[in-house]
Amino acid sequence: MTEPSPIRLPWIEPGDPFPPSHRALTDQHGANGLVAASQSLTPEMLEKAYRCGLFPWSGPGEPILWWTPNPRMVLSLNDFRCRRSLRKVIRQAVELGYELRVDSSFQQLLTECAAPRKGQNGSWITPAIIQNYRKLHEGNLAHSLELFDQDQLLGGLYLVSLGKMLFGESMVSLKPNASKICLAMLVQWARQHGGQIIDCQQQTHHLISLGAAPVSRQVFESILKTEIEKQGFPWQETPPRLTLWQE
C-alpha cells in the first residue's frame, strides 16, 4: 500500500479566498476536512468561512485551523427527538418560571462554554474566538439562547445564523438538561419560521441521540447554498420563548 503524498496546507491571510472544499485533507491524512490555516482571525473571515461551509476549530497555542469534514453532521429539524423525559423537563422548567432569553448574556455564555470539560486541559473556545464571535454577535450574525432562573444562568447555547441556515457552535449546562431545553426551544421556533436544518459540524453520540445524522459534504454544501440565500430568522421581532413542547 502506498502512502498518501504529502500535502502542504494552505496558509491564508485576511482577505484571501478559502481553498475549495475538495482540496481538504481526508482521513488518510489524519485530519478529515482540514482545508487551511491562518494566524489571523477576523469577523469577516468567519462570515466568509461559514458561507463556504467552513468553521474554525483549534486548540490553545495553535494557529486557526479551518475545517469542512466529510461527512458532515447535521440535525434536520423534523428529525429532532424530543423524548418524553425531555418534554417532562421542559414542562417542569415552565412550571418553575424559568425564562428563556436571547442574546442577553452572549459573552458570559461563551465564557461558560469555554471552560474545560472534565478530562480536558483546554478548550477550542480561545480568547480570540470569544472576541471575534462577539463581533459577529454585534453584527446580528451570532446569537445565544440562555435559560435563567431569575438572575441565575442555568445554561444555554450559541450559534451563527445566516439566512435560514443555523450553525450550532457550543452548548453548556450549569444545571442538568438546561442546554437541551434551549436546543428544543430553538428547534421548535426555527421550524415555525421556516427553518430546515442545524449544522452540528462533527459527530457525537449526544447529537445522534437527539436525531442528528451525517450527510456527505456535497449534500451539505447543496443545502447550505439554498438555505443561506433565504430571508433570515426574526431574532429581534419574535425571538424564541420557553413554552411547552409542541409536535
Radius of gyration: 18 Å
Strand content: 15-25%
Q: Give the N-terminus to C-terminus distance in angstroms.
A: 52 Å
The oligomeric state of the chains shown is single chain
Specify the CATH architecture of the largest domain: 3-Layer(aba) Sandwich
Strand order within the widest beta sheet = 6-7-8-9-10-5-11
Compose a concise summary of this entry.
The protein has about 250 residues and is of the alpha+beta class.
Structure description:
By secondary structure, the chain is an alpha+beta fold. The protein folds into two domains: 11-69, Alpha-Beta Plaits (2-Layer Sandwich); 73-227, 3-Layer(aba) Sandwich (Aminopeptidase). The chain has helices spanning 43-52, 84-95, 106-114, 127-138, 178-192, 205-209, 217-227; strands at 11-12, 34-38, 55-56, 64-67, 72-76, 99-102, 142-149, 152-162, 165-173, 197-201, 213-215. The mean pLDDT is 94. It has a seven-stranded mixed β-sheet with strand order 6-7-8-9-10-5-11, sandwiched between helices. It has a four-stranded mixed β-sheet with strand order 1-2-4-3, with helices on one face. The chain contains seven helices and eleven strands.
